[in-house]
Specification:
The complex is a heterodimer of chains A (about 350) and B (about 110). By secondary structure, chain A is an alpha/beta fold. Chain A has 2 domains: about 1-120 and about 245-335, 3-Layer(bba) Sandwich (FAD/NAD(P)-binding domain), CATH 3.50.50; about 125-245, FAD/NAD(P)-binding domain, CATH 3.50.50.60. Helices cover about 20% and strands about 30% of the residues of chain A. Chain A has helices spanning about 15-25, 40-45, 60-70, 160-170, 190-200, 295-315, 330-335; strands at about 1-5, 5-10, 30-35, 50, 60, 80, 85-90, 95-100, 105-110, 110-115, 120, 140, 150-155, 175-180, 205, 210-215, 220-225, 230-235, 240, 245-250, 260, 265, 280, 285. The longest helix of chain B has 7 residues, at about 25-30. The N and C termini of chain B lie far apart (about 30 Å). Chain B has one domain (about 1-100): Beta-grasp domain (Ubiquitin-like (UB roll)), CATH 3.10.20. The model of chain B has no long low-confidence stretch (mean pLDDT about 95). Chain B has about 110 residues and is an alpha+beta fold. Chain B has a 5-stranded mixed β-sheet with strand order 2-1-5-3-4. The chains are: A alpha/beta (about 350), B alpha+beta (about 110).
Chain lengths: ~350, ~110
């Protein structure tokens, strides 16, 4: 059980700056994020796209913004729990107990949800029958490629993940690669290699087609695909792999008893607290009259939520407002010399 | 202004007047039409404003943006007439446009 003054859910720009604000005022925090990297939407959706409305930064990309925020956090030792999604929430004597899908447990008086539009999850196949085989013979990521040895594997998708795995698995498996159009969004060298192997008969490349349905008794046995002209084709397959990118979903937070408005969480504008005491929401995921979904708004919301955390984390102390330019205490925390 | 009709998957139709210069996605969001999530806010960075464009309109609404098809690969049940509504500009030429919404966006 990890005890901390505040648990931040989401390692996007708002979560990162909120951590900075907590540490400045002397509170501990840890950060959980379902992605395997830090940066949230900035890093997953638009790492190379320039952003023009961060105060005092005329232009920077999502990746640069993330790097700068991490630099700003350097004086502090913050523990990140990546590739973990918050799952269960329980209340216990004025403290919240949170458990992640990997079993990590936290005890904290404060939870700050900086979850953007939700946690990133793989886009799944749309036919309902696929659920029966999910995580067994229908997969959206690969943990152990040995299981495919000598098997027939049908890979769906047209991006780098789909093509890279088609190349890799074609060494020891029979591979069908199926894509809904005939253009691919992968490195040109990879696309060339796939086409070469397709010509040589080592990859069965099928374009302009999508999965229609799957059959099997306990495990996947057969898949049926349909092309743009509605013609269907069935073939034997031991595994089906889908690589359609990531979508964002609120996930288990939706069951935490918070007041939700579509995909956002209602908060007040003093503490950015939800209807549950000690649970705050900041950044794109929060909603209040006048809410702007800008990164700069997330910074403001995080700064205020951090102050609200102080009261619950240090009930016997009084919070004192200080400037970084003049406070000796803050300079000590930052590890910089005071005048 | 252009009249745009959004038909939900359950058959419910919404016709609204959308100002020139906006996108078909913004027309839906500003009029609270259910079924268009637009998670990324129009950056072509997600695929949650996905619509099916009626065949007779498909060639009249301008070509797909560069990279749009790559995002449509990630949409829920993409079809031949799939578009991201954030990439369709509203102009007098598209007055009367009809789009259908998918079963869901995510």
């Amino acid at each position: 059980m990890i005890k901390t003054d505040a648990l931040i859910v989401g390692a996007g720009p708002t979560g990162l700056f909120t951590a900075h604000q907590l540490k400045l005022i002397g509170l501990d925090c840890e950060i959980v994020d379902n992605l395997d990297k830090i940066g949230g939407q900035c890093i997953e959706l638009y790492p190379d796209k320039p952003i023009y409305d961060i105060p005092a930064i005329p232009e920077c990309t999502g990746e640069e913004l993330t790097e700068n925020l991490l630099n700003q956090l350097k004086p502090f030792n913050i523990k990140f729990h990546l590739s973990e999604r918050v799952d269960e929430l329980k209340q216990d004597n004025n403290k919240w107990k949170v458990k992640t899908n990997k079993g990590t447990e936290f005890e904290t008086p404060n939870i700050i949800i900086a979850g953007g539009v939700g946690s990133f999850e793989p886009r799944k196949f749309s036919p309902k029958e696929c659920e029966k085989f999910e995580n067994k013979t229908i997969l959206y990521s690969i943990k152990d490629k040995k299981i495919f040895h000598g098997k027939t594997v049908s890979i769906f998708g047209g991006g780098d993940s789909a093509l890279d795995w088609a190349l890799e698995l074609s060494k020891n498996s029979k591979v069908n690669l199926i894509h809904r159009r005939d253009e691919f969004k992968a490195a040109q060298a990879t696309v060339d290699k796939v086409k070469e192997l397709s010509k040589a008969g080592k990859i069965n490349l099928i374009t302009n087609s999508q999965l229609k349905t799957v059959n099997g008794n306990g495990k996947l046995e057969e898949i049926e695909i349909e092309n743009n002209n509605k013609e269907t084709k069935k073939f034997k397959s031991d595994y089906a792999l889908g690589f359609f990118g990531l979508i964002m979903q609120l996930g288990p937070i939706a069951n935490w008893g918070l007041n939700l408005n579509k995909k956002t969480i209602e908060v007040d504008t003093e503490k950015f607290e939800t209807n549950q005491k000690g649970i705050y929401a900041v950044g794109d995921i929060c909603n209040y009259p006048g809410k702007l979904k800008l990164i700069l708004s997330g910074f403001h919301e995080g700064a205020l939520a951090a102050r609200a955390c102080f009261k619950l984390a240090r009930p016997n102390e009084k919070y004192r407002f200080e400037f970084t330019t003049s406070s000796k205490t803050i300079k000590n925390r930052l590890g910089v010399k005071s005048d | 202004m252009a009249k745009i009709t959004y038909t939900e998957n359950n058959g419910k139709s919404h016709s609204v007047e959308v100002a020139e210069g906006l996108t078909v996605m913004e027309g839906a969001v500003q009029n609270n039409i259910p079924g268009i999530d637009a998670d990324c806010g129009g950056g072509m960075a997600c695929a949650t404003c996905h619509v099916y464009v009626k065949d007779e309109w498909f060639d009249k609404i301008g070509k797909k943006s560069e990279g749009e098809d790559d995002m449509i690969d990630q949409a829920y049940e993409p079809k031949k007439n799939s578009r991201l509504s954030c990439q369709i500009q509203v102009s007098p030429e598209i007055d009367g446009l009809e789009v259908h919404l998918p079963v869901k966006q995510v």
